[in-house]
Amino acid sequence: MLNFDELGLKPELYKAIDEMGFETTTPIQEQAIPLGMAGKDIIGQAQTGTGKTAAFSIPFLQNISEEGILQVLILTPTRELCIQVEKEIYKLSKHMPVKSMAIYGGQDITRQIRGLKNRPQIIVATPGRLMDHLNRHTIQLGNLTTVILDEADEMLNMGFLEDIETILKECPIEKQMMMFSATMRPEIERIANTFMVEPELVKIKSAELTVPKIKQIGYIVPEEEKFTLLSRLLDMMVPDLAMVFGRTKRRVDELTRALQKLGYRAEGLHGDLSQYQRDNVMNKFRANQINVLVATDVAARGLDVSGVSHVFNFDLPQDADSYVHRIGRTGRAGNEGLAMSFIVPRERGHLSYIEKTIRTTLEMASIPTEKDTSKKRNEILISSVVRAIQEGTLTNYKETAQELIETYGAEESLSAMLKILGGNTNREKEVRKIKLTAERPVFSKHHDNYGKKRGGKGRSFSGGFSGGGKKYRDNRDSRDNRDRDKNKKFNGKKEFKKKFSPKKDKWS
Fold this sequence. Notes:
Elements: H1 11-19, H2 27-37, E1 42-45, H3 52-63, E2 72-75, H4 79-92, E3 100-103, H5 109-116, E4 122-125, H6 127-136, E5 146-149, H7 152-157, H8 161-170, E6 176-181, H9 186-195, E7 200-203, E8 214-220, H10 226-237, E9 242-245, H11 249-261, E10 266-269, H12 275-286, E11 292-295, H13 297-300, E12 310-313, H14 320-327, E13 337-343, H15 348-358, E14 363-364, H16 370-391, H17 395-408, H18 410-422, H19 427-433, H20 450-454, H21 470-486, H22 492-500
Parallel strand pairs: 1-6, 1-7, 2-4, 2-5, 3-4, 5-6, 8-13, 8-14, 9-11, 9-12, 10-11, 12-13
Helix pairs in contact: 2-3, 3-4, 10-16, 17-18
């Protein structure tokens, strides 16, 4: 790892980094920052939580002009990530005469237009809202020096490919471009081939993708027993901050209501909420006013919340990439994290596919019984009592305690107090009364004959992208045929390989 003071940064930028408490670079920063400062185009393969925002921000902040014209454009898939990235840039540039602005849907566009009159040098935007501004001619891209696509794969998943291409065509040809993605897919190859100049690949090793400090546990559990399992684990583990992932908006809403009914401080987050509602939920979560956030993948993508100790995959995600993004909410900044996944028996094959993709085997655990949960609750209660005794602030209670002991005896009095403090003894019955709408199991298209379909012949970036397999190739070919008609610059796999692979060791 490099120390930030070894990078030759301008004093104002280094001061901000020092105030943020950063001393050494992360792997993605170590590789990307020197290349970015040298003006190179970059393709970065990295997950959320690896420090990639600083990896692409520090280079353009080092080179940015103080002139009040738009010089940097960053595209993000979601409003939450847009806001988070802009906040990070604000922190990094706090000692510089630089203005940044977040542009996203769900916010009054006239308010954004007023903000643009302050002439920000940096804009972080979602593709859809940026297109609105381009159509209104309220944003001009002609002076851009740097364009960044953050979580490019997720933007493609959300259907923004056409918008991204339209936006990039509005940008100057002579510019630096950086693209960050957790996965490399044919459309990314297309964008790189069309809009980038000899990009350098910055890739985090596969072993680093799932963060080694995250303990990953799996439970084989019937669909109808999932909520009982979740309530038992929450009671036994008592997390400071936890995230629970559901596959659908309906699931998130039902889970949130069920948890609230049992007394948990829980709120839900999904795409149907207004921006005000989303901001309100996140502010509560960050302030520890709630300690359980129930969310869909899209709603949680890009969220940066410190202190998340537990992640629960109530429903398995559709793909391995989403799994990595989910569990990456915990175990951040060097802290320990715990990720638990609930697997319906018919999803064993899908779990196998995820494990092979991330090169990690989940530790399978048995479902805790009602007796296990009760025992753990009592242990937590006793621990609290012992801690109160050790603190020695019991003077106001001793007279009452003495009266109880004289009247009912020590054992009966203490037992009664523990019963009261222990809460509802009928909790398990209440849990079982709660019924959630069942979700269909996820079936993997990849787990059968995995090695035959996806192994062995997959290409590295030096010759294309990781992956392979018949389905992958067929999909790529069909897209390429359509793309050739739309864009003569893209000539498929061979052209990309030729253009971006002059030296094999360049991509290592």
